[in-house]
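fwd from M.: "can u put these together and see what the complex looks like"

so here's what she sent:
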Amino acid sequence: MRQPVALAHACRLVNHGPTVLVCSAHGGRRNVMAAAWSMPVEFTPPRVAVVIDKSTYSRELITASGAFALCIPCRDQAGLTARVGHTSGREIAAPDDKFVRFGIEHFAGPVLGLPLLAGCVGWLECRWLSEPRSEQLYDTFFGEVVSAQADDAVFAQGRWSMREDNAALHTIHHLGGGQFGVIGEVVQGQIAADGANG
Amino acid sequence: MRQPVALAHACRLVNHGPTVLVCSAHGGRRNVMAAAWSMPVEFTPPRVAVVIDKSTYSRELITASGAFALCIPCRDQAGLTARVGHTSGREIAAPDDKFVRFGIEHFAGPVLGLPLLAGCVGWLECRWLSEPRSEQLYDTFFGEVVSAQADDAVFAQGRWSMREDNAALHTIHHLGGGQFGVIGEVVQGQIAADGANG
């Protein structure tokens, strides 16, 4: 079941490099694209970076609205993620869009009202932090997370809990060409002591 | 066996969000740190971003030398990755360093001569692209990949090939607290058609 995640734990949702679905909306238009290239940049306040190519329809909507969302798809959504990633929202004649074309169930984000995909396992709404130079040179967009939610069947008490009995909900990681690696086993590194990274 | 990877394929090594080990060296000093937060930002020329906290010894060495390397550890190195990530190079009295302390086998990168970890499954040497604002505000460092190599037992012909028979070489993805998700199954998303992302 979808549950709120404390903002202090929000970046753990994307700490391990899952492929995400980027949602955006402006002036009655909306879009969703796949992005393999995202990462957290700060835990507190929770901030993320995501690469949004200049050619994308999503980039238009994000810069016009000042917001985007990252939805984290699971194993059961690998097909949808590939389809969404291989069609541009610009190619679909209004009033249709990718949500209509692909029959995507969605709900409104709690803070920004962005369209979020049902069936994902994590959701982050972000306010865009405009950085013209990074956007121009590296297509890198920064955002501050203002709402976080996760499916408590696989993320509970601020932690991912990927187990054999919830394998359909494990995150997917794009290897290229529509192939995704799925998180299988979870291993514990032996930590000598707590301390600074570096 | 370690083999060169064409620069056009270099970013595929980190496309799926593995945790990496960042190597740096300057003036006879050297260091290695763990970083869960990295991503490609461009395929051609191959460029990456990685988050390097202001407190780290690595940041000193990278900004002094103008270079860093990303090594991609595998399942068999989860313990080493956690240990390296929980000790600062600054805490170890010269002439010792983390390579000595943890008995890390290494070899020299082919272009920049950076110390690269043996036993990893991918290696990227990068020239630092100085971006003071991103570094200051988001701890985000950009770099251009100038050499790429991979273990051909798990990455061949420009593609990851993670299978049951090479499970020890699969990449690891930090979930937090020293726990790593390991890529298990690989699934093929059904792609409707080739086309633009977005």
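replying to her w this: Chain A touches chain B through 80 residues (CB under 8 Å).
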